[in-house]
Amino acid sequence: MKKLVDYEALGIVEYWIVDYLALGASRYTGKPKQPTVSVYCLVEGEYKVTQFQDDRPIESLVFSELNLTGNQIVKFGIPFN
What's the predicted TM-score (pTM) here? Predict the structure, then answer.
């Protein structure tokens, strides 16, 4: 939580957390847990978080022309066998 408050105070417009192993709390990764990309966007001085999973397209204020889904991002974190 401290990082969140620090980033807000610094005015960092957006940051992402990529939980490709679904280790985060179920409120962030769903039930059942699944790999999730969380995008925190600074809106009126506070972060609003949106989670992206599966084939849902990522929405970004900073990268407005980005054309990726949650699956496309998290698959690169999974080790190859």
Answer: 0.85
